[in-house]
Amino acid sequence: MPTNIVMPQMGESIFEGIITKWLKVEGDPIKRDEDLFEISTDKVDTVIPSPVGGVVRKILMPVGSKVPIHTVVAIVDEAGRAAPSAPPVPASAPAAPAPVPIPVAVSVPAGRPDGDEKHVFSSPLVRRIA
Fold first, then answer.
1. Rounded Cα gap, residues 24 and 4, in angstroms
2. Residue 75 and residue 23: Cα distance in Å, rounded?
3. Alpha carbons 46 and 123: distance in angstroms, whole number
4. Nearest to residue 29, comparing CAs of 52, 8, 46, 47?
5. What is the tens place of the pLDDT at every residue in 69-116?
């Protein structure tokens, strides 16, 4: 069964990486968690392991390619059989980016819970500063 290997997200603000080196070539057997390729981002250079074992069937992005995260960069055939009969997901179709959380404003009453506005709770540090 073919498995798409995607460009991982290496940090919250990382949206692309450059493939600096392929450690396997098409047709090479690979074990799960064995190093597959190296990437370079704005913040980190690292080696990416294979999430599955099998045979490297197709390398879709050459060395030096600037690849957006979640883009398919290679295909590994887990069974190690001949080329898959169904075509894999095209590499040029990146997945939608993860949704960004939107901060929500919450109103907090300034006074005490019983409604007495003369007595405002404050920490000892705030009282010292005041």
1. 15
2. 14
3. 46
4. 52
5. 999 999 999 875 444 445 555 555 555 566 666 666 655 555 555 555
